[in-house]
Amino acid sequence: MKNGNGKQAAVIDYPSHPEESISESAKHFNLIVYLYEVLLELFRDRLSEVAIHANMSWYPTKKSTIWKSPDLLIAFGRPTRNDRISYAQVLEENIGPQVIFEMWSLGNSQAQIEEKRKWYSKYGVQEFYWINYDQDRVEVYLREGKQLVRQELPEKMWKSPLLGISLDWSKGPIQVLLPNGTPMPTREQIEQKNRELAERAEREIQRAKQLEAELHALRKRFGLDSE
User: Fold this and answer.
1) Distance CA 105, CA 113 (A)
2) Hey, what long-range contacts does 29-34 have (CB within 8 A, 24 or more apart)?
3) What is the dihedral of CA 127, 131, 137, 138, to 10 degrees?
4) What is the rounded distance in angstroms from the CA atom of residue 177 to the CA atom of residue 158?
5) pLDDT, tens digit, for every residue of 23-49?
6) What is the Cα–Cα distance from 34 to 123, expressed in whole angstroms?
7) Distance CA 53, CA 139 (A)
């Protein structure tokens, strides 16, 4: 590719960062997967316009040296793509993630959380969630002007203005409530429901075949069907 001066323009590489482990414990991993699957299910009819990715490196500028890999990022206005290895904002119509989730990690300090808050504030994030799964604690930050400001949470529940879902940690481990207030089923519950629906569909197919055979036998008995 040539620039305006006719010279060959350098191609900037925006790699993923596989050296960063996606999780450091089963709790960490399971929570990421749970929230990721919840969001995919919630926006399953809108994935062409809502990008949802886990542990993906986000480059908010043209520089390949400025990046972070949040546990979950959600960008409205961009599609979810299976072939996306990183989220380079310059290649995404300059649309950055509006919602970020970070899970507690061993050794995290409040200073590190504050550093992330400032970074996400700088690059336009609208909602930032920090979840401490060991202490069943959630910190919520919403954009107010140029900053992400921590919200006062009188109850252990919060409804996301952008996502529409609610996070409920009043009874222990965090649970997601759908916009209508009902609990989001777990992956195991969804899989069980799918199995039940598949088994029901198979029974109905077999029953239809049986009825068709019985009808054919009756028509043949009364001479309504030719041999």
Assistant:
1) 10
2) 31/103, 31/131, 31/133, 31/174, 32/71, 32/72, 32/103, 33/187, 34/176, 34/186, 34/187
3) 0
4) 10
5) 567 888 888 888 998 899 899 999 999
6) 26
7) 21
3-state secondary structure of 114: helix
pTM of the model: 0.77
Nearest alpha-carbon partner for 35 in 174, 140, 136: 174
The answer as to whether 203 is a domain residue is no
The tens digit of pLDDT for each residue in 99-112 reads 999 988 766 778 88
> Quick one: tokens of 127?
């909602």
**Structure token pair of residue 24:** 């450091």
Residue 187's φ and ψ, nearest 5 degrees, are -60, -40
Residue 128 belongs to a domain: yes
Structural domains counted in the chain: 1
CATH code for position 40:
3.90.1570.10
User: What is the Cα–Cα distance from 158 to 58, expressed in whole angstroms?
Assistant: 26
